[in-house]
Amino acid sequence: MARVRRFAKWQFMLALLAVIGLIQAVDHGQTPRPRRIAVFGSSVANGSGDEHQKEGYTGLLRELMASRGWQVLNQSRGGDTTIRIAPRFAPEGTPDPNTRYLLPVNPGYVVIGLSLANEGIWEAKTKEDKDAIYQQYADGIKSLIDRARQNNIVPIVALCYPRMVYTPVEYQYVRRINLLHNSWDVPSVNFPGALDDGAGRYTLGFDFDDKHPNAMGHREFLYTFVPTLFEALEKGKPTPSTPANAKGFARIAQGTAPLTFAPQDTMHAFAVSVMVRAQSDGIIAAVGGSTLSAKQETKKVAAKEFEEITLTADRPFTATVGVQGGKWVYKSADGTSVASAVAADARWHHIAVSHYTARGETLFYVDGKLSGKVAERLQPTQFVLGGPGAAGALRAPKQADYKDVYIFRAALNADEVAVLNRGQVLQASLEIYSTLTDSRFQPNSMVENRAQSMTGLKIGSDPIKHVEEAGDTN
């Protein structure tokens, strides 16, 4: 009888907590949203190019989110533009039974997956025509965002992906629209940060045809989703922004692994950005994991032949960023050094490492300018800030200061690095954004993470000191 009473008591407590949650949602003017994600886009969102016919990145997202208690629906249709998709938001009059509408499936969240490719940016011949297509697309995406919010649906925007016929002219428009989306108060996913070949086209071996990735390309798109994004949105975590009144930075002296981040799910393309000040040689950041080997094979679907690259784990690696001979240096997985001409001195410097796994290339930027690049394919499993990650011959500087650290699940192009170098925030595929202005750094706790994710940098045993800007004596 006592066990029955205890069980009944727990049932009552759970019910009470549920009611409290509902009351809080109503109190904030919100209706609790279903854990249902609709992918609402065109052919790539619908899975075109996936030779396994498993709905491409949408099907893969469904598999990823199912274990977390989320449902993913495919409400996409090939060929859609911002104009053609608008009538599918909600039926007018009698619904067409063969049309995938958005509103009738009652999603709590919608991934808007369209592209400038279908909009006609390449086909437009004059600058005036291309400008008009660009504006039409921007206005159309903004309209879909507004309609979603009006219906209590949280929007997420997939950035425009590559196309094999793009010239530098179209590539400029794609980069421009993606920066615009990054500046909006809406989460986004950086697809080109996975498959851009550096000229706006798909990386060879991950393309099915002119407009679509193959199955492996769709998988690279999946990896650009922050896995805990939807949980963060569910909890009301806001778009990342720089805190208004936060001051100071983190000071670390000869640390080994002061701050670490281990991705919970597979990560391929990535970027790390940090503001740092160091005046002696040593390692200020490290990335560890596995290199990837690439196997290319010819595949045929119906009458269509295409090349596909499969990536598999090869050997452990550690890549580092640090000061060597007084200059900023990136040392790759195989030990190749990419040196900057910029000296490490008493000034703050912006350091960025951008890695495109698919195309097998890492780019090293210092103060917004490309210092060099190196060929490698990496799958990171640990990021370290403030030291080499393990004791040994490699050491951190005698003292270094850190602030504004970013970790993305996508590589960054030169335009995006320039935005960070100017002190502005990027949010597409952003897993970690920590200003490092925390008043205390308690071992085994987490640093504040302003990104829309539920992960964060873990504080190790190395002493980390909070220093106010006004108290800086360097």
Total helix count? 11
Shape: globular
Amino- and carboxy-terminal Cα gap: 70 Å
Question: What percentage of residues falls in helices of 4 or more residues?
Answer: 10-25%
The largest β sheet comes out as:
8 strands, antiparallel
Q: CATH first level of the largest domain: which class?
A: Mainly Beta
- For the secondary structure, the number of strands is 20
Give the overall pLDDT as a whole number: 92
Beta-sheet strand percentage? 25-35%
List low-confidence stretches: 1-29
CATH topology of the largest domain: Jelly Rolls
Q: Do you know the CATH architecture of the largest domain?
A: Sandwich
Number of domains: 2
Rg calculated over all Cα atoms: 23 Å
Alpha-beta content class:
alpha+beta
Features:
474 residues, alpha+beta, Jelly Rolls, seven-stranded antiparallel sheet, 20 strands, disordered N terminus
